[in-house]
Design a protein that fits this description.
Elements: E1 6-11, H1 14-26, E2 30-36, H2 48-60, E3 66-68, H3 73-81, E4 87-91, H4 99-102, E5 109-113, H5 125-131, E6 136-143, E7 153-161, H6 168-191, H7 223-236, E8 243-246, E9 249-257, E10 264-267, E11 272-281
Parallel strand pairs: 1-2, 1-4, 2-3, 4-5
Antiparallel strand pairs: 5-6, 6-7, 8-9, 9-11, 10-11
């Protein structure tokens, strides 16, 4: 029987680390360290969210695992080399890692991505799926190469519903069993030295960070486009709601409906939309 792999986990929150850790242990492997990116960009100051998230990770992690908070990718590479890792497992880590990092482990690195690659390569696949009105998303586990979500596919699965009012908590609960199953399968393929399947050249799309201009509602768009725009920011949190001008007033749109309901009716390019929840603001801000 092959020896268990020593695995470093790079992820984005306490629940994600716990899920990855449990999956690795059930598959017979040993997580030895967690890596959390303390800023959105390397060598940047940690924001309030990062401090809160790192504290939650620290409070929930096992006693025999170290937490790494590197300043940049080079620091991460130096740190993980001391653990003699066999594999780096990435899920939601903020930074694109160079070969000098993912080449440290004996078997390289694998990444868990919330889309059916090559669709929605990039940091925000779920937001773009909501933005485009997709009814479901998928999950892919792939080997990491020097591109952005371009490495060979080990396993993937679709069919995860995206309800009209999907929340992060709901989506996390739906993703959890799929992630567990796919990661278990991917770890077995890594142990078997399977290279994975090259990604198709057709169907490639990208899911970059939401552009600042998208925070302003344009009523000349279709009702579905405006509704999806509100859904994107609702998923991110109502404090991020997009700004719309309704008559002489500027408001943040928190919740809308495409069906006639009690609320403010506004005409879009092709049909009306109903504003169910909003908040006034004094200044719409730039964009």
């Amino acid at each position: 029987m092959a020896a268990p792999m020593r695995i470093v986990l790079a992820s984005m929150g306490a629940e994600e680390f716990a899920l990855l850790h449990a999956s690795c242990e059930r598959a017979g492997h040993l997580p030895v360290a967690y890596a959390y990116s303390r800023s959105m960009r390397p060598r940047s100051s940690a924001d309030r969210h990062a401090v809160t998230a790192a504290s939650a990770v620290l409070a929930a992690m096992p006693d025999n695992v170290d937490l790494l908070l590197p300043a940049d990718a080079a620091g991460l590479g130096r740190a993980i080399s001391g653990y003699r890792p066999d594999l780096l497992v990435i899920y939601g880590f903020n930074w694109i890692l160079p070969a000098s990092v993912f080449g440290v482990p004996r078997f390289g690195a694998i990444n868990i991505h919330a889309s059916l690659l090559p669709r929605y390569r990039g940091p925000a696949p779920v937001l773009w799926a909501i933005r485009n009105g997709d009814r479901e998303i998928g999950v892919t586990v792939h080997r990491v190469d020097e591109g952005v979500d371009t490495g060979p596919i080990l396993v993937q699965q679709g069919g995860i519903p995206l309800d009209d009012e999907i929340t992060p908590t709901q989506l996390r609960s739906r993703l959890a069993p799929v992630l567990d199953e796919l990661l278990t399968s991917a770890l077995a393929k890594v142990m078997a030295d399977e290279p994975g399947q090259p990604q198709p050249r057709e169907g490639i799309s990208h899911a970059g960070l939401i552009e600042p201009e998208y925070r302003k509602v344009d009523w000349s768009r279709t009702a579905q486009e405006v509704h999806n725009q509100v859904r994107v920011f609702r998923f991110m949190g109502s404090q991020n709601a997009p700004v719309a001008r309704i008559g002489r007033e500027c408001r943040r749109l928190i919740r809308t409906s495409l069906e006639p309901v009690e609320g403010l009716r506004v005409e879009c390019a092709d049909a009306p939309i109903w504003v169910l929840e909003s908040a006034p603001i004094s200044d719409p801000g730039p964009g």
